[in-house]
Write a structure and sequence with these properties.
Blueprint (H helix, E strand, L loop, with lengths): L1 H37 L4 E9 L7 E9 L2 E6 L9 E4 L4 E4 L1 E6 L21 H8 L12 H4 L5 H8 L2 E6 L6 E4 L1 E4 L5 H4 E3 L4 E4 L15 H27 L11 H5 L1 H4 L5 E5 L2 H13 L4 E5 L7 H7 L3 E4 L17 H9 L3 H7 L4 E4 L6 H13 L4 H8 L1 H6 L17 E4 L10 E6 L2 E2 L22 E9 L2 E12 L2 E8 L2 E4 L2 E5 L2 E10 L2 E12 L2 E8 L3 E8 L5
Parallel strand pairs: 1-4, 1-5, 6-7, 11-12, 12-13, 13-14, 14-15
Antiparallel strand pairs: 1-2, 2-3, 5-16, 7-9, 8-11, 9-10, 16-17, 17-18, 19-20, 19-27, 20-21, 21-22, 23-24, 24-25, 25-26, 26-27
Length: about 575
């Protein structure tokens, strides 16, 4: 019996031994992982490179040293720590990482529209009128970009491939759009990528339905009225709560409202507002609105800022300038007439930055919704060709962006104590064929992915016939818009008339290639002529695709062609 009991216990100790052994191996492997991670270089030295510090003189042949993500030394004769990983920089140029000061990188396509709010108790008089109104689309100042951020994917790789290491992220459309976050374009986690949050509350002037009719506020005047009333409500809301907190005894407690609560730092002047503006009239109205409520503000977009230099210079308004210059659609008929205003804006937009610089205004650049980050840098180079000094263009991509967004002590130049966001190129940043050889974000070397190869063209297919009346629906973030397109096809050429809430417009160009349909027309939106381009694919009697409104963005559309019996 004793022997059999012993034999029964022995397998138990044997199993325990195996468990301990497995745990030991796991701990050993864990220690190996920790050791290998700790052995990843935390000290780098970029040696014998041309260093463009931005805030100081260019160092023709110098060294940058950074440890644990922070620049520790910059100069010509800098001793290199023995533990540093040395990168030979002979023939290379070191720049600070570049900013894109408005993008939706890493965010959902748009904030979710606010749903129905729960029934509320009787509100103080200052809030009653606002609460009786139906919710206005995209009025959600409480929305935080930092909570929505998701790192990774091809868009981040494309941004890093052109040297964008820092981005101000916010969806592009809405009225009270939400609060932006400044992020690095790489990080161990989304939270680690955030440099500053919130940066500002963003307010846009896009009417409901994208300016395409139907819902309040459906005009620019209605948008400004809505913004003004909301800010007044926020002021009154803050006053009621302040009075209640001073002496709550015997007073009815005000109702908490998330939208108005989120606006308190704005109306107190603690959180800046970034107004999304483009036209001269929007710029001037935004400035008057900001001054009425004593807001701390920045203007973003500002394609026509050169037309408002007088007020911008007088108020010293900081600007985030879009380089998404108006372009003639590729498929447009070169013989088609275009409105004079459209032609003038297309010619003058690349000169905008040079005129602002000549006026002594500070500005930074942003991509303005360009889908290809390479076009962002190319268009900055176009601004240089249009008269902007190259060193000013570089400052607009780096230190000016950092100063306007309140992070100049952390980013924007190559200085001791700043975050090591660095790009190393084999030539001048604005040259077409320049390559980024090394990229560092938060002091960590990031592999720069080569651009994706162009896909070979698909075999051509016979063109569909699209003659007929198409009932189309354009989907904007705030609502749908009905459009009727009466199309006539002759071979691969397309003509016809489009009817929308703006009236009728004749196609200036149109074509059919295989199942793809493209047509362009000019419509007057808010008193301004704008090009509208439909690009769709036809399957039988169904058409779907994207409509692009010049200066307003792109929206999906779909529809059908009723069969004639």
């Amino acid at each position: 019996m004793r022997g059999s009991a012993y034999q029964r216990r022995r397998p138990l100790r044997s199993r325990q031994g195996r468990v301990i052994g497995i745990l030991g191996i796991a701990l050993l492997l864990g220690s190996v992982v920790r050791v290998s991670f700790s052995q990843t270089p935390s000290v780098y030295a970029l040696k014998d490179a041309r260093i463009v510090t931005v805030t100081g003189p260019v160092i023709p042949k110098g060294t940058v040293i950074f440890r644990d993500g922070i620049i520790t030394a910059v100069g010509e004769n800098v001793p290199i720590p023995p533990e540093a990983r040395v990168i030979e920089g002979s023939g290379l140029i070191v720049y600070p990482g570049l900013f894109d000061t408005q993008t939706d990188l890493g965010l959902p396509s748009a904030p979710q529209a606010p749903g129905p709010r729960p029934a509320a108790a009787p509100a103080p008089p200052a809030q009653a009128q606002a609460q009786q109104q139906p919710p206005v689309p995209h009025t959600q100042p409480e929305w935080l970009a930092a909570r929505q951020l998701q790192l990774g994917g091809q868009r981040f790789e494309n941004a890093r491939a052109v040297g964008i290491t820092t981005a101000l992220v916010i969806p592009p459309r809405g009225i009270f759009i939400g609060q932006s976050a400044l992020i690095n374009t790489a990080g161990e986690t989304s939270q680690r990528a955030v440099v500053k949050s919130p940066v500002a509350l963003h307010i846009g002037f896009m009417p409901a339905g994208g300016g395409l009719g139907g819902r309040f506020p459906g005009s620019l005047m209605g948008v400004f009225a809505h913004i003004r009333q909301t800010l007044l409500d926020a002021q009154h809301y803050g006053q009621h709560w302040e009075a209640y907190r001073r002496n709550p005894r015997g007073l009815e407690r005000p109702e908490y409202t998330e939208v108005l609560e989120a606006l308190q730092p704005v109306v107190r002047g603690e959180l800046p507002v970034i107004f999304h503006v483009n036209s001269e009239s929007e710029i001037r109205r935004a400035i008057r609105l900001a001054e009425e409520f004593n807001l701390k503000f920045i203007l973003s977009g500002a394609i026509e800022a050169y037309k408002a230099i007088d007020v911008l210079r007088e108020r010293r308004v900081p600007l985030l300038v879009s380089v998404n210059f108006p372009e003639r659609p590729r498929e447009a008929d070169p013989e088609a007439d275009e409105p004079l205003r459209v032609l003038r804006l297309r010619a003058e937009a690349p000169q905008n930055a040079a005129r602002l610089h000549q006026a002594g205004l500070k500005f930074a650049f942003h991509s303005g919704g360009l889908s290809n980050p390479r076009d962002y840098i190319r268009n900055v180079a176009r601004a240089v060709q249009a008269g902007l000094p190259e060193e000013v263009a570089l400052r607009a991509l780096t230190i000016h962006a950092a100063e306007i967004l309140g992070v100049a002590e952390q980013l924007g130049s190559i200085e001791v104590g700043k975050i090591a966001n660095l790009i190393v190129t084999d030539g001048n940043l604005f040259e077409e064929r320049v390559r980024i050889r090394y990229l560092f974000i938060d002091g960590r070397q990031i592999e720069v992915q080569p651009p994706e190869p162009e896909r070979p063209s698909a075999p051509s297919e016979s063109s569909v016939t699209v003659t007929g009346t198409w009932n189309l629906t354009v989907e904007s973030p705030q609502g749908t818009v009905a459009v009727t397109a009466d199309l006539r096809q002759e071979g691969e050429a397309l003509a016809g008339v489009v009817t929308s809430p703006f009236g009728q417009a004749t196609l200036s160009s149109g074509s059919v290639s295989g199942r793809e349909v493209r047509f362009t027309l000019s419509v007057e939106i808010q008193g301004t002529p704008m090009l509208v381009t439909f690009v769709g694919r036809v399957e039988g009697d169904r058409m779907s695709g994207t409509v692009t409104v010049e200066g307003m963005g792109s929206f999906p559309f779909s529809g059908t062609r009723p069969r004639i019996s």
